[in-house]
Amino acid sequence: MPLFTWYDDTRSRIFLGQFSLKLLDEIDTLSIPIINYTATISATPFDMYRRIKSLYGLADSVKFEIDKNGASLSINGEIAIGGLFLKRSIRGAKINDAKEKERTWELEISAPDRVSQWVSLEYLLKILKIYTQGSGVKIRLSNDAPLRVC
Question: Cystine design at 6: which of 17, 21, 40, 59 (Cβ 3.0–4.6 Å)?
């Protein structure tokens, strides 16, 4: 194994470090598992960020519960209990109002199972803030994997 030696740059040279580093061909490769998400919530980034931020003022975490009828985002904080319910959108429905088009949420469910997951609102807001300038954001959920924002 190659040996790496490091000295402090000061005149006294008090600090001395030695490390053994593995070469890349000695490291075991890790495979990234393919995750099949069973539910997806799609929305405009600004609308998603605004709704999640309104919950953040009341609690620290949100519970996503998605079933065949729709999705609920519920909170149970020290100062408030409540939540939002998102109805499942109908594909092909025509929306005439431009403002209503901008605020359309879509809910895609590919499995009949109920998906339920608690997520930190602070974490979710930090990630959603990145997407606020984009055209759309999706939150993908599964019971046996962490949520994914894309």
Answer: 17
